[in-house]
Fold this sequence. Notes:
By secondary structure, the chain is an alpha+beta fold. Helix content is 21%, strand content 32%. Catalyzes the oxidation of either pyridoxine 5'-phosphate (PNP) or pyridoxamine 5'-phosphate (PMP) into pyridoxal 5'-phosphate (PLP).
Amino acid sequence: MIPAINNLSKFCVRHLSTGLIRMADSSIAQLRVSYRDKSDVLLEDNLESKNPHQLFSIWFKKASERDDVRQPNAACLATATKSGIPSARFVLLKAFDESGFTFFTNSESRKGRELEENPVAALTIYWDALDRSVRIEGAVEKISEAESTEYFDTRPKSSQIGAHVSRQSTVIASREVLSELNAKLENEYMDKPVPRPLYWNGYKIIPRTIEFWQGQSDRLHDRIVFERAEYSREKPNVYHLGENGWVFYRLSP
């Protein structure tokens, strides 16, 4: 247990080999990087699109074209129980268009169960090499069975079998349990297609807000938020008109 103390500057964390160390003296506390120069800022008038879906597509394309961005579609998905207990994990964004942002998962997993009882989520993508991040928040709905099957059939056979092997988020006795079942199913489906498990489905986040973040070295980061116009009536003096029913505004970093 970390002891409660009044002076935050003396806050300590437990280190396995050296005991308690002060955060102020910790190498972790000193970690920081420089982002963009003050002259390279994200201005409302210079946005490459006033439609957040199109702007996301432009940013995503730039990230995808870089050799130093290994997986541009990796995203942190945050869900919560009906009572508000949160959880987060990384998923792979597999499609996006004007209707929303799609990922696939086991519906019996923790995130699947949480989405069933509380169908809202937040998705965050961070491209370190670009000093950029995008946050997406909104309602979630399952895509059709046909769409899920269509995508499942494009996956490598090993991944298809893996979807059957892993009853995601359930407790297992050992790694060997997975390996043995995987070997069994590889043999079973050696010469035939692997069907999509009924619990393996696609989900789409239908965004209410999409935030575009760009890091600045002076920590005065740029934050431009797009929001559906029907939710922004309380901000009439600060928002700008976007396209296709969106407005946008700047947040303090």
